[in-house]
Amino acid sequence: MTSENRIITSGLSYAYPEAGKFAVHDVSMRVKNGEFLAILGHNGSGKSTLAKLFNALYVPSSGNVWVCGLDTRDDDLVFDIRQHAGMVFQNPDNQIVATVVEEDVAFGLENNGVPAPEIRLRIDEALRAVNMEKYAKKAPHLLSGGQKQRVAIAGVLAMKPDVIILDESTAMLDPSGRREVMNTVHRLNREEGISVVIITHYMAEAATADYVIVMDEGEIAMTGTPREVFSKVEKVRALGLDVPEMTDLAHLLRQDGVDVRADVLTVEEMVEEVCRLSSNT
Ligand SMILES: Nc1ncnc2c1ncn2[C@@H]1O[C@H](COP(=O)(O)OP(=O)(O)O)[C@@H](O)[C@H]1O
Ligand SMILES: [Mg+2]
């Protein structure tokens, strides 16, 4: 264990009681300090189970998980582990517990015995970090989905985590809500050095990560930078996933004999490629 890693799993497997097979099988991976990691995979490939193993919600059937050096098998460390690794789930309505935004953010802290003046500071700081300070006294049910997820992120941030795990936390949001949440986690990653793990079905979101892990049948099927992973279009498709739109377009153009790079991810990069080609002719 070195301080370069926030989460390490080694030979990690998990089977639900009474299930005939492993939901997660022999997964060895790491989340590095400051890394922005995306975990992809079709439905049922084991992503949520893996996320719950990161957070000590589940104990490994075999193998290990260490969160900032803490072994999730150790019952006495569970509370600590959840402070280091905070989870944001899919449905914002299921994670907001209080009737006032700032009370919701304070919830974990109060349970944790943090002194009141310190709680006040942490609430203000966390709400500022997700750009929701103006809503501190508002009722959560009046907020948009994106705003609610930002409050949920603030609740995690108030615990001063080293890593935030978002399990399809943008899935129920409209495009602007998705953008708000993604911008927020990218900024926290960049400016606060918090490691981020996103589980997502949106390939455009995955394309913004430093590193991608693709799961299949509970196992790791592919790893690499988004460019490395998505340029293997056929393999990604065989795993039941799409590639980003511009990667798909590049793939089609190459099939027609157009000499664009195979690893284009964004519109900007496609524009560059098209300009390069037209200046060559
Ligand atoms: N609570 C549960 N009890 C039994 N089996 C489960 C439970 N949750 C998930 N599974 C099974 O574990 C496997 C992995 O599920 P999950 O981790 O939810 O995948 P994903 O998040 O990638 O969709 C699937 O086969 C799923 O049916
Ligand atoms: Mg899931």
Order of helices and strands: EEEHEEHEHHHHEHEHEEHHHH
Radius of gyration from CA coordinates: 20 Å
Looking at the structure, the CATH topology of the largest domain is Rossmann fold
DSSP helical segment count: 12
Percent of residues in helices: 40-55%
CATH class placement of the largest domain: Alpha Beta
Task: Please tell me the overall pLDDT.
Answer: 94
- Class computed from helices, strands and strand pairing: alpha/beta
Largest sheet descriptor: 6 strands, mixed
Spatial shape: globular
CATH superfamily of the largest domain: P-loop containing nucleotide triphosphate hydrolases
CATH architecture of the largest domain: 3-Layer(aba) Sandwich
Q: Strands of the biggest beta sheet: in what spatial order?
A: 6-7-8-3-9-10
Low-confidence stretches: none
Q: What small molecules accompany the polymer chains?
A: adenosine-5'-diphosphate, magnesium ion
Total strand segments: 10
Number of domains: 2
Classify the beta-strand content into a percent band: 15-25%
First-last Cα distance? 54 Å
Descriptive report:
The structure is a single chain. This protein has 281 residues and is α/β, with parallel strands linked by helices. It folds into 2 domains: 5-240, Rossmann fold, CATH 3.40.50.300; 244-281, no CATH class. Helices cover 41% and strands 21% of the residues. The protein is built from 12 helices and 10 strands. The protein has helices at residues 47-54, 78-84, 92-95, 101-111, 116-129, 145-157, 175-192, 203-206, 226-230, 233-238, 245-255, 267-280, and strands at residues 5-14, 24-32, 36-40, 62-67, 70-71, 85-88, 163-167, 195-199, 211-216, 219-224. The protein has a 6-stranded mixed sheet with strand order 6-7-8-3-9-10, sandwiched between helices. A 4-stranded antiparallel sheet has the order 2-1-4-5. Helix 5 (116-129) crosses helix 6. It is globular and about 70 Å long. The N and C termini lie far apart (54 Å). The structure holds adenosine-5'-diphosphate and magnesium ion. Adenosine-5'-diphosphate is lined by residues 16, 19, 23, 41, 43-49.
